[in-house]
Design goal:
The complex is a heterodimer of chains A (about 60) and B (about 270).
Chain A (H helix, E strand, L loop, with lengths): L17 H7 L4 H5 L27
Chain B lengths: L1 E3 L2 E4 L2 E4 L10 E2 L13 H28 L5 H27 L9 E2 L1 H6 L5 H29 L3 H31 L2 H20 L25 H6 L4 H10 L8 H5 L1
Parallel strand pairs in B: 4-5
Antiparallel strand pairs in B: 1-2, 2-3
The chains are: A mainly alpha (about 60), B mainly alpha (about 270).
Chain lengths: ~60, ~270
């Protein structure tokens, strides 16, 4: 009976530094959009294959 | 929906009750009740501006509420919140002007107070900055870049230029939040718990309010057939807003663009 028990594994602790926590706790616009609150659908004029790489022309 | 005092329940999800609105507005609780169109017809153009106008109104209220709720926040942060209030009120007024120029009117379409409902459940400044500025407005930067292209391709250069101008302001709103969050986290590690709490709450609410398969909105658009992948990370402007390379890489992964993440960043 005792032989069928899974091997004991010591608990593991994952430590994250400050930057890693901020990196992990993010949500993308696409994820937020899934809640149904954002909308960009516009037929064929909406790009679908590449991340946008053009910056604002008037950045502060 | 049920409501009691400061909160309301929508599809089993608790949110902050709606803020006051003029009688001309019809407030709804779900995206299925909104009039989002999937084209660029005249009515769709007015609806987009109307929705955007109301979004800016909400943001003004959210940021102003932070000033009221956290009177002991550092003065420099309070000044940035106050400046953001001015930006958001200006954005609302500009969008309202454009809406009227296109034959629209205030209250022409139903509105939803989603961002208000989420952020006003958060009881710390770091959580509000993380959810409102870093997440909602960070996402709006992605959205505005695409909307700039969208209006331009639809032949409306005035609205396209407006999206670009609004985007420049949003970069500043996200950047100051990123700076303060990093500074606050250096000074007090509890900040990170507050950020995590805020984002986890947003994730939970997002899951709870996601449309059911096949659900259509008030104008017959299927909400789940529409692909949300169209909202793509705006890398350049997010860098201006001081997201780190590692944070951007994580966002790309979340959106299914792992192949675009440089291997050196991936290992970081």
């Amino acid at each position: 009976m005792a032989e069928r028990r899974p091997r004991y594994e010591a608990p593991k602790i994952t430590s994250m530094d400050r930057d890693e926590v901020l990196q992990a706790f993010q949500m993308s616009a696409a994820q937020i959009s899934a809640a149904g609150c954002w909308w960009t659908a516009a037929g064929s004029c909406t790009p679908t294959s590449q991340p946008c790489t053009a910056g604002a022309t008037n950045p502060v | 929906m049920s409501a009691s005092g400061k909160t309301k329940t929508v599809r089993g999800v608790t949110l902050r009750s709606d803020p006051a609105r003029e009688p001309c507005f019809t407030i709804v609780q779900l995206q299925s009740e909104l009039h989002d169109y999937d084209d660029m017809s005249d009515v769709s153009r007015r609806q987009r501006l109307h929705r955007h106008m109301h979004n800016e109104m909400q943001t003004l209220e959210i940021v102003a509420q932070s000033l009221a709720d956290f009177p002991d926040a550092p003065w420099e942060l309070r000044m940035q919140l106050a400046r953001q209030c001015w930006d958001e009120s200006r954005h609302s007024a500009i969008l309202y002007r454009r809406l009227r120029a296109m034959g629209g009117r205030k209250g022409e379409f139903p509105i939803m107070n989603y961002e208000w409902g989420v952020t006003q459940l958060l009881d710390s400044m770091p959580a509000r900055l993380a959810v409102q500025n870093r997440t909602f407005e960070g996402g709006e930067m992605d959205l505005l870049r695409q909307q700039h292209h969208m209006w331009s391709e639809a032949g409306d250069d005035e609205n396209a230029a407006l999206m670009d101008a609004l985007l420049a302001d949003e970069v500043q709103h996200v950047r100051y939040a990123n700076r303060w969050l990093k500074q606050m986290a250096r000074e007090n590690p509890r900040t990170l718990l507050q950020v995590a709490t805020g984002i986890q709450l947003l994730k939970k609410i997002t899951e709870g309010l996601a449309p059911e398969p096949g659900e259509v909105n008030a104008v017959g658009v299927n909400l789940t057939e529409f692909t949300h992948v169209e909202v793509i990370t705006n890398m350049v402007d997010r860098k201006l807003a001081e997201f780190t390379d590692a944070e951007l890489a994580e966002l790309l992964r979340k959106e299914g663009f792992s192949s675009l993440v440089p291997s050196t960043t991936e290992a970081a």
